[in-house]
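Board notes (copied after class):
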Amino acid sequence: MYPDISYFLHDLIGTDPDNWTSVFKTFGLFLGLSVFSGAYIIYREFKRLEAEGKLVPTTKRIANHKNKIWTDIIMNSLVGGFFAYKLPYIVSHFEEFKEDAAGMVFSTKGNVLFGILGVIGLGALHYWQSKKALDAPVREVIKTIQPHQRVSDLTFIAAIFGIFGARLFSILENLDAFWADPIGQLFSGSGLTIYGGLLVALAALLIYVRRAQIPVIHFLDAIAICYVFGYAIGRLGCHFSGDGDWGIVAAAQPAWWIFPDWMWAYEYPHNVADFYQRGPKLEGCEWKFCTYLDPKVYPTPVWETLVNLIMFSVLWAFRKKMKIAGTMFFLYLILNGMQRWWIETIRVNDKYEMMGLNWSQAQYIALVFFITGVIGMIYLYVFRKGQNTDPLDTL
C-alpha cells in the first residue's frame, strides 16, 4: 500500500519513505483525479447535448462596476496574505506539516508579520494593476455562455461541497470523536463518506444549474455517468492508501475463483488506517506505516471500482440510445443502490437499528436511491408515457 507518495517512490526508485514527498497523500491524489476525470466526462456530455440541441447557450450582462473591482482587489489580497501567513510557518515546521497538512492549514498557526506584509503588498499590487479599470467609465457587455463553459464552475462547486458533505456525514457517524476534538475532526482529511459528498454536492449543483438556466433533467443525466466514473477512480484511492474502507474477514477462497488471490483476500500492508488501530507489524519495517491486516479481508474498494467501471461502460454505450430525458439518471440510481447495498453487506461499517433493520448508513441511503430510481422510471415511462420534455422544468 501507499499511504503517501513517498512509499510509491520507495518501490519505484528506492528512496526512503516518510520524506518530504509524504505531504502528497495517495487518497488525496486519487480524489483530485476523480474530480477532474468526472469533469472531463461531463464536459464531453455537455458538448454532445449541445450538438443535439438539448442544451442551449445563455447570455450574461457583465459590467465593470467599481464595487466589483474593489471586491476583487480585497479578496485577492486576503487570499495571498493567507498564503504569506502560512508558508513561513509550514517551512519552519515541516515535520508537523507532514503529519497533518490539513490540520495545520486550517489552524490559527502562522507568521503574523509575513501575513500583514503579504496583504499590504498584494493589495498595492492589485490596486496598481486595476487602476485603469477603476478610472474607466462604467460599461456593460453581453456575453454568450455555452453550458460546457460552465464545467469549471460545476467542478469547483462539486469539489468544495462534496468534501464538506462527505466530512459532515462522517462526523454524524462518529459524533463521540467529533465532540472530543471538534476542530481536528472537522478539518481531518480522513473519514469521508461518499454518499454525504454526493448528496450535498448535488444539492449545491442543482441550485447552480437552475440559476444558469441549464435544464435540470439533462444535467442529471450527464452527472450520473460522470459520477459513476469519478467514483470508480476515487475507490482506487481507498484501496491504494489502505484507508480502512475494506471488507470483513474473507472466507476461504472458492475453487471457482479465477482472478488473482489478492482480489479475494488482501492484508493491506503499510495501510494508513491501521497505523491508528495498531495491527500486526511487518517484520523489519521501521517506517511510519508498518502494519498489516491479519486475517486478510475482502478488498471491497477494488470490487466497487470494477462494478462501477462496468456500470459506466453500460451507461456510456447506451447514452445516445436513451431518448427519454431522465432515463440515465434514474437507471444510475437503481444500479448504484443495488451495488452499494450489496457491498455494504461485506464491508466493515457501523450499523444502525431502524424500523427493525440493522443496516449501515450507506445501506439506508442506497435503498432510498433504488426506490427513487424505480419510481422515477415508472413516472417517465408510465405516467408521462415517454414524453421527452423536462419534467423538472417547473421547479
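Comment from the instructor: The mean pLDDT is 85. The chain is about 60% helix and 5% strand.
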